[in-house]
Amino acid sequence: MKIRNLLLTLVLALSLGLAGCDFGQVEQGRCVAFDANTKAVTVVLDVKHDQRNPEYTGGVATYILPSDPAEIGPLPVPGGRVMFDLNKSTVTIYNPDTKGLEVLNVEFTDKQMNIKPTHPMVAGKKFPIIDEANKTITEYSRRLQALVTFKVPEDKLHLPPQTWEAGDEVRFYYKENAKHQALRFMNITRTNIFKK
């Protein structure tokens, strides 16, 4: 009986101790802007936290990288393209002027699927390929393993090439009382968690 009471007391004490802890939270998303001077990273948040099947409907947020360099992985490379929707023929981009997302209706003129990053069609190639004469953009999506060529509205053809590149997928750990100050930062795109 005494051991049972002791165990119950320990479980209760542990529960109360954990209840007072602030474990922090994690956010994940696509990097659309990075200021190396201020260490500010702007991301479009993925509400599913699923790199293979993201849902970028969490809005746009800016986080400051951790003050401890040991808590920072590879620095993020931003890009304006948030995602392709091959079924709906749209490209979602980040508009730095409005600081919001813009969904563009496009015409896909070519789709090459199941193209791995090592495939000769993409390995060592620099994307996007902008063809002003034909008003098309060719881009590679590593997540979709798709090499696509598409026509955009004419007023969008002269946007900077970075507009069509996907930014790195990144993750932040922070405490609720200092939401925009990251305590840990991970660049998912450039980190091989299986590497020893």
Element layout with pairings:
Elements: H1 2-19, E1 25-35, E2 40-45, E3 60-64, E4 81-85, E5 90-95, E6 100-105, E7 107-113, E8 129-131, E9 136-141, E10 146-151, E11 169-174, E12 184-187
Antiparallel strand pairs: 1-2, 1-11, 2-3, 4-5, 5-6, 7-10, 8-9, 9-10, 11-12
Q: Oligomer, anyone?
A: single chain
Instruction: Provide mean pLDDT, rounded.
Output: 88
Distance between the first and last residues' Cα = 49 Å
Q: Which strand-content bin applies to the residues?
A: 35-45%
Widest beta sheet: strand line-up? 3-2-1-11-12
Structure, explained:
- The structure is a single chain.
- This protein is mainly β and 196 residues long.
- It folds into two domains: 23-77 and 167-187, OB fold (Dihydrolipoamide Acetyltransferase, E2P) (Beta Barrel), CATH 2.40.50.320; 99-164, no CATH class.
- It contains one helix and twelve strands, in the order H-E-E-E-E-E-E-E-E-E-E-E-E.
- The protein has a five-stranded antiparallel sheet, with no helix packed on it.
- The termini are far apart.
- The model has no long low-confidence stretch (mean pLDDT 88).
How would you concisely characterize the structure shown here?
It contains one helix and twelve strands; from the N terminus they run αββββββββββββ.
List its salient traits.
single chain, about 200 residues, mainly beta, OB fold (Dihydrolipoamide Acetyltransferase, E2P), 2 domains, 5-stranded antiparallel β-sheet, 4-stranded antiparallel β-sheet, 1 helix, 12 strands, about 10% helix, elongated
